[in-house]
Design goal:
The complex is a heterodimer of chains A (323) and B (414). With 323 residues, chain A is an all-alpha fold. Chain A is built from 14 helices and no strands.
Chain lengths: 323, 414
């Protein structure tokens, strides 16, 4: 019984994201869900830092954007045949950048860490904007071709994105449930105790930072293929803010919360934007309601009574027993 | 039997008008405009102009009694605009994509147009790329590109501005600002004008304080200062530069967006006299019945005078309607493309004896360019100065320039 409960989010995940192909509500909605699933990976990767490790990065757009730009520029420079390889290279590039940024920013904590991540992201955004002949400046880069296998209809690319994202999310899920994930959880709850246990907080945070950036880079690369165009907005601070919003709305304390948050934010943007130009007002209103009434996010509603999920209980036991 | 026949007649009498109403198709155009923030005024003006054009087009009638309708969505950013464009095509069944203020968003949406083989009429974004190195056959533009403005500017500098050699440029640090400078220099070189660049200044878009740039320009002392800003940036720069006496010490030259009514209205009495400007449409030129009617209709509908963005939207709707009339329906995209190629379209900005046309090879509207200087004129309040002393440059001298397209392709890539 416990097993089924543990895997229930996965069942819902598969039923929803594969069911949409069976139901086939039309090209536009498949494209919309493709955006949701890519943003889901971005948000889940971000939440490894935010919800699990307790680090509020306000510069995650940097890694998402670096992944997108490396993938897009490699496709433009060569050919789309090695698209998957380029996505991987984009993710490696994002991880590489994050390693150096992490080395510097993780020396700080709290708001100072947040501000420094924002500063680095804005720096790279500015460079992307200014390096007119290399990155296309504010015009970005268009006509990023997909390999023949993924061209012709959005459903093929959606299924490709689904497979890639599902593998990535599964890896992140395993990481969160691994001893390393438990350490990250414990760092969020009591970093001093982790130090007393003989573990290095800084090193573990850096590992989480790089892993998170790697998967955010994959999300960026996937998005470059979805629309066939990239632009500096992908590295701008609102994109970083979106990751925080998705995790917060969905529930940063739960693994699948950011997936729900990505769905809600993308859906809201779509529905509200269709009827009014004051879309940001309504999105702000929803965030306000969620933060005030459901501080644990949509998936955290069941925990309003104060009961903790298994993961938190296990972490607390691990911390208290010194395991 | 008799009763049956009567019943059939009654049913037919009820159903026939209903069927006729059903047959009258509504042809949807999916538009994207910046409706909020600094570029929001352009979107709002375009919306008013679209409504005026729709009334005219639907009153004149379309084949099969069809009606044109336009849906407008705030475009936010390229990522969102692409998603909306796809929704327009696949979900809302729009036959045309339309509008867009920002070239960056235009470039992203033109890819959607190409992928789905749906005609996209760009009405305001001016980046030359879309009708040059990034050309695709389903894209058409109903307003000037920056090359047309800057090439006319190069002619003006050659013929009308005497005894100058030193030139400096200030423009927003993004593609729109960078391209204008590249295009003007290319035009001057092409015309064999000898000049010396004494300064290039790249403030960021929406820069609130230009003081440091103004003092640097004063120190460089160019004979001609070229400005590539638009909207509120123009207003802020001119207001801040005036106390330094900048306009008395050099020729100020601002020919793509400087003379836009938005800036003339924003500056009011603060606008210096005699500075060289232009825009893609002027409310007071040409003094033709068509332009007067268009400006009056806009004023009646909105209670204000239009910025140039409105004319592009107005012309764009008429272009689409004319193409549908030629083809007889809105479903044959390839035939519509053919109908638009080379189409002659009378625009409010056309002077007597000239009709704008769509260049069949680049799908760019080809129009005359009128450059003027600021003179006192309070007939279009709140503006206290309008442009006058116009010099008019023939359309075919400005576009197409395949030599420049080749140069641009080499510099910016396909």
């Amino acid at each position: 019984m416990k097993k089924i409960k543990d895997y229930l989010p996965w069942i819902v995940y598969f039923v929803f994201f594969l069911g949409i192909v069976v139901v086939n509500p039309g090209t536009h909605y498949i494209h919309l869900v493709a955006r949701v699933i890519i943003f889901s990976l971005y948000a889940v990767a971000f939440n490894l830092l935010y919800g699990t490790t307790g680090l509020v990065s306000f510069g995650h757009a940097l890694f998402y954007g670096v992944g997108a730009y490396i993938t897009g520029m490699l496709v433009k420079a060569t050919s789309p045949e090695f698209f998957l390889l380029y996505i991987l290279l984009g993710a490696v590039g994002a991880a590489f950048v994050s390693f150096f940024i992490g080395l510097l920013t993780l020396r700080l904590t709290g708001i100072y860490f947040t501000m420094l991540t924002l500063a680095f992201a804005q720096l790279v955004w500015g460079l992307t904007f200014k390096l007119y002949h290399f990155t296309g400046g504010d015009d970005g880069i268009q006509a990023i071709a997909k390999p023949a296998l993924l061209s012709g209809g959005v459903t093929k690319y959606y299924l490709f994105s689904f497979v890639v994202v599902t593998i990535c999310i599964y890896i992140l899920w395993r990481i969160r449930r691994s001893p390393f994930g438990t350490v990250l959880n414990s760092i969020r709850q009591n970093p001093q105790r982790i130090t007393f246990l003989g573990l290095n907080v800084y090193k573990n945070q850096l590992k989480a930072f790089v892993i998170s950036a790697f998967f955010a880079g994959i999300a960026g690369g996937l998005y470059a293929g979805l629309d066939g165009s990239i632009h500096p907005d992908m590295l701008h601070w609102p994109t970083s803010g979106n990751a925080i919003l998705m995790a917060t709305i969905g529930g940063m304390g739960t693994f699948f919360g950011p997936v729900v948050g990505a769905g809600i934010l993308t859906g809201l943007e779509e529905i509200v934007g269709k009827y009014t130009e004051y879309w940001s007002f309504y999105i702000g209103l929803v965030v306000l309601i969620v933060v005030l009434l459901f501080p644990n996010g949509v998936l955290g509603i069941k925990r309003l009574g104060g009961s903790k999920n298994n993961e938190e209980k296990e972490t607390e036991v691990a911390c208290n027993s010194g395991n | 039997m008799k009763h049956k026949i009567i019943s059939l007649f009654i049913i037919a009498a009820i159903l026939i008008p209903f069927a006729a109403v059903q047959a009258a198709e509504t042809i949807k155009i999916g538009a994207l405009y910046t409706m909020t923030g600094r570029g929001g005024q352009y979107g709002k003006d375009s919306e008013v102009a679209i409504k005026i054009a729709l009334d005219e087009v639907n009153a004149k009638g379309l084949p099969g009694g069809a009606k044109l309708d336009v849906i407008i969505t705030d475009d936010k950013n390229p990522q969102y605009a692409v998603s909306v464009a796809k929704r327009y095509i696949t979900d809302e069944k729009c036959k045309f994509l339309f509008g867009i203020i920002s070239t960056a968003i235009g470039l992203a949406v033109t890819e959607v147009s190409k992928e789905h083989k749906v005609i996209f009429v760009g009405t305001d974004h001016a980046g030359t790329d879309l009708t040059a190195n990034k050309f695709q056959k389903y894209y058409f533009r109903s307003a000037n590109n920056t090359f047309q403005s800057m090439m006319a500017g190069a002619y003006y500098l050659k013929d009308e501005v005497k005894n100058w050699k030193k030139i400096a440029y200030i423009g927003p640090d993004y593609a729109y600002g960078r391209d204008q400078w590249m295009e003007l220099k290319w035009g001057l070189d092409k015309l064999g004008v000898k000049y010396e660049v004494v300064g290039e200044y790249w403030p960021k878009l929406y820069e609130p304080d230009y003081t440091s740039y103004i003092t640097a320009i004063m120190k460089a002392a160019p004979d001609v200062l070229v400005n590539g800003m638009w909207g509120g940036d123009t207003v802020a720069f001119i207001k801040q530069a005036k106390p330094y006496g900048l306009f008395g010490k050099m020729k100020y030259f601002h020919v793509d967006a400087g003379g836009n009514y938005e800036a003339l209205a924003g500056l009011g009495a603060d606008m210096p006299a005699g500075i060289i400007m232009s825009a893609r449409h002027h409310n007071n030129w040409p003094e033709t019945p068509a332009n007067k009617t268009y400006v009056d209709k806009f004023y009646k509908a909105a209670g204000r005078y239009p910025s140039y963005a409105a004319e592009g939207a107005y012309v764009g709707v008429h272009m689409i309607a004319e193409a549908i009339r030629k083809v007889g329906n809105a479903n044959d995209t390839e035939a519509l493309v053919k109908a638009l190629e080379g189409m002659k379209i009378q625009c409010p900005e056309d002077p007597q004896g000239f009709t704008s046309y769509i260049d069949p090879k680049t799908h760019q509207i080809v129009q005359v360019q009128a450059i003027g200087t600021t003179v006192k004129n309070d007939k279009f309040p709140p503006a206290k100065y309008m442009l006058g002393n116009f010099k008019v440059y023939p359309a075919d001298k400005l576009w197409p320039s395949f030599e420049y397209i080749d140069y641009m392709t080499k510099v910016k890539g396909k």
